[in-house]
Write a structure and sequence with these properties.
The protein has helices at residues 5-17, 48-57, 86-99, 115-127, 141-151, 174-181, 194-199, 204-210, 242-251, 270-285; strands at residues 35-39, 62-65, 69-70, 79-80, 102-106, 132-135, 154-158, 188-193, 215-220, 222-223, 232-233, 257-260. The protein is α/β, with parallel strands linked by helices.
Length: 286
């Protein structure tokens, strides 16, 4: 994608005058004030087209794609990611339009330090008009910040659980994530995976408070127990205080997307995902 230097200069000037933030997610795709839908990984046993269909069936209005999912049952050898051709992207956009689903996020994806490689991710995000990209590529933070400013697309750093066998993995710790993003552009922050925080022995609401005003998006989860072996359960039926999490996001004037990433009963979880989305809808009606 070519960027006209005059346009970039104008954009830079505008960003300097106003609070920099990406194009907002439209209100029309929000449920109870939140842009809630599915992380396509929830349906990783199926194709992109099926993930879109299942998101719609569950009542979601937005979707977060991940790299490498098969395009369709009919074309299982074509993968959907930031290397996809314009024709493949057009096919996905058509399916999204048919099902009334808006793409809002993409990840978890590696963003290389190499600017040319990183641009592939951001060009892909721009073509899909995404609000954000999700990554754990801390070493590419300088490249990420440059492209965030240029493309006006947010980037959230995702947290997987604590790894007892790998003390070098630090993304599980919200204080570490804050140290990575705090002096960076406001469009760079956290993709708050509440389940992985709970698996790491942390209280998700406390983690959100540590990262206040830096929550770009969330992989919202409820768990059957607080342990590394825990599995997902419908919101409100597990050990995570989902109402308190939603209240804290609301208090922070959270603008991003909530992805239901339901990694349990992977071949038959649409009804459980629908319960999660329904919980958010019901929370807002109280």
């Amino acid at each position: 994608m070519n960027h006209h230097p005059v346009l970039l200069l104008l954009c830079a000037g505008a960003c300097a005058v106003t609070a920099a933030f990406a194009e907002p997610i439209p209100e029309v795709v929000k449920t109870g004030g939140f842009a809630v839908g599915c992380q396509a990984w929830t349906f990783n046993r199926f194709s992109v087209f099926e993930a879109i269909d299942k998101t719609a069936e569950a009542g979601g209005k937005v979707i977060e794609f991940y790299p490498g999912q098969a395009l369709s049952k009919e074309m299982p050898n074509i993968q959907f990611d930031h290397n996809a051709s314009d024709d493949v992207i057009a096919q996905v956009q058509q399916r999204l339009s048919q099902r009334g689903i808006r793409p809002v996020n993409y990840g978890v994806v590696e963003i290389p330090k190499d600017e040319a490689g990183a641009r592939k991710v951001f060009d892909f995000a721009k073509k899909l008009r995404l609000y954000a990209v999700t990554t754990e590529s801390v070493d590419a933070i300088d490249t990420i910040e440059k492209l965030v400013k240029e493309y006006d697309i947010c980037v959230g750093f995702h947290n997987h659980p604590r790894r007892p066998d790998n003390p070098n993995y630090r993304m599980w710790d919200p204080k570490y994530v804050l140290s990575v993003v705090k002096n960076r552009d406001q469009r760079i922050g956290s993709t708050a995976d509440t389940g992985h925080w709970a698996r790491s022995g942390l209280e998700p609401v406390d983690c959100l408070k540590i990262l206040k005003h830096r929550i770009i998006s969330s992989h919202l989860k409820d768990l059957n127990e607080k342990s590394l072996e825990a599995h997902d359960v419908p919101y409100g039926s597990g050990v995570c205080d989902i109402p308190a999490i939603l209240q804290e996001l609301k208090r922070q004037k959270f603008k991003g997307n909530i992805s239901v990433e339901y990694e349990h009963d992977l071949t038959n979880n649409v009804s459980s995902v629908a319960q999660c989305i329904g919980f958010v809808r019901g929370y807002a009606s109280k």
